[in-house]
Design brief:
Elements lengths: L5 H11 L8 H12 L12 H20 L3 H14 L3 E2 L5 E2 L2 E2 L11 E2 L2 H20 L1 H27 L3 E3 L4 E5 L22 E2 L2 H18 L2 H16 L2 E2 L6 E2 L28 H15 L6 H15 L37 H10 L7 H12 L8
Antiparallel strand pairs: 1-2, 3-4, 5-6, 6-7, 8-9
């Protein structure tokens, strides 16, 4: 197998395809996102829900600009980004946060009123992608430059916040982000766990680490500061070290979560979280988004790695049907009733490098859907050669 290089991807993918995406995709997408954005989740969500319930719209607005060139999508992103960011509060260490009850969003660290690193990273990344494009365009910079710089400044403060709270842990191979075991005490200070910052914690699962790493790469693209690229690279080094291959094959498999240090173990010696493959295949799609972003930034992952991912998704997981494509679990494990329809999914970022996976995507994609909100304009912009590398 020969994977497409990034140069081929950005310049000739449209010409190499048999047919362009269906002509009605963008119209269907626009009707859906405009109607659904009346929810105004940006006006009310905090914590991790900034990621899951606000950022899909932000991704759609961001990629909508690249797919159409229409600044109305910049205006929509600016409106939504300003709405959720202005609701932040200054916390005891001087940083801004968007806290909520049980904001750690994991049963391992329950009961804290706190903000959430993942939600903030997911919410800020689309603004960073657009900010980088705005500041490279004299025309866009004249209108949106101050706003773009403000988004970048907020994102840099956000990175500094979680770093200062002892949430980054250096490992023998790379490093990881952890959920802190402290929050706001309601009296202007921290709960007692603050005294053990940098020691206690709970390592985030791989999908959340990959989302945060993509935020860091977007921050590097917007600022040129290598600290952000290097921090993402260290996670990718750790992540790749967890990969394993099935016996006598090139098929890859990895766990949803692995312990990374003493903070991940109970006093009796057991891990704080189960270790294994997750029965929801969607988490592995998120991981592939991180892998491809790293690869396009020339970090850690090689063409051989991309090839192994392709054959895992295409030759092992796929049911070999273009129409009505289905995917098995990455480890062919038993289906969990909670995710009976998605034990495995198409690893969409790999359509950049494999024609069969691209055909599967185009045959089954629903542009007017929740998952299509960001994916549709992303793909159209890609096919038009208008997507910034690694975006």
């Amino acid at each position: 197998m020969k994977t497409l290089t990034l140069v081929l991807l950005t310049t000739t993918l449209a010409a190499a395809a048999d047919t362009p995406p269906p002509v009605d995709w963008m119209a269907r997408w626009q009707r859906y996102i405009v109607a659904d954005s009346r929810s105004r989740t940006c006006d009310k969500e905090t914590g991790e829900e900034i990621g899951w319930l606000v950022s899909p719209y932000l991704d759609g607005f961001c990629y909508g600009y690249f797919a159409t060139g229409d600044p109305v999508w910049i205006d929509r992103l600016a409106d939504w980004t300003d709405s959720w960011t202005k609701r932040g509060i200054k916390e005891p260490d001087g940083f801004v946060g968007w806290p909520k009850a049980d904001g750690a969003s994991t049963q391992v660290v329950p009961g804290l009123f706190t903000d959430n690193q993942l939600g903030e990273a997911m919410g800020l990344r689309p603004a960073l992608v657009l900010a980088a494009a705005i500041l490279k365009s004299p025309e866009l910079s004249a209108k949106y430059g101050d706003r773009a710089k403000a988004w970048i400044a907020l994102a840099e403060q956000n990175f500094a916040k979680w770093d200062a709270r002892g949430c980054w842990r250096q490992l023998k191979v790379g490093g990881v982000w952890v959920v802190p075991t402290f929050g706001l005490d309601g009296k202007g200070g921290w709960t007692e766990g603050y005294a053990r910052k940098g020691v206690d914690g709970f390592t985030l699962p791989a999908n959340k680490q990959n989302y945060i790493a993509r935020f860091e790469l977007a921050l590097f693209d917007a600022t040129g500061k290598t600290i952000y690229r290097d921090r993402a690279e260290q996670w990718f080094q750790q992540f790749k070290s967890r990969w394993r291959t099935k016996p006598d094959t090139k098929f890859l498999v990895w766990n949803y979560w692995d312990p990374a240090g003493p903070w991940d173990y109970k006093p009796g010696g057991g891990t704080k979280h189960w270790v294994g493959v997750h029965p929801n295949g969607g988490y592995y799609l998120i991981d592939n988004e991180g892998i491809v972003a790293a690869y396009e930034h020339h970090l850690v992952f090689t063409e051989t790695d991309i090839d192994q991912l392709i054959i895992t998704n295409r030759d092992f997981m796929w049911n070999q049907k273009i129409q009505g494509a289905k995917f098995a679990s990455i480890d062919a494990g038993l289906t969990d009733a909670r995710w009976k329809d998605s034990p495995g999914v198409l690893w969409v970022p790999l359509v950049l490098y494999d024609d069969t996976l691209r055909q599967i995507f185009e045959a089954n994609h629903k542009p007017d859907s929740w998952s299509g909100m960001g994916r549709t304009p992303w793909y159209v912009a890609l096919r038009l050669g208008k997507l910034p590398p690694g975006a």
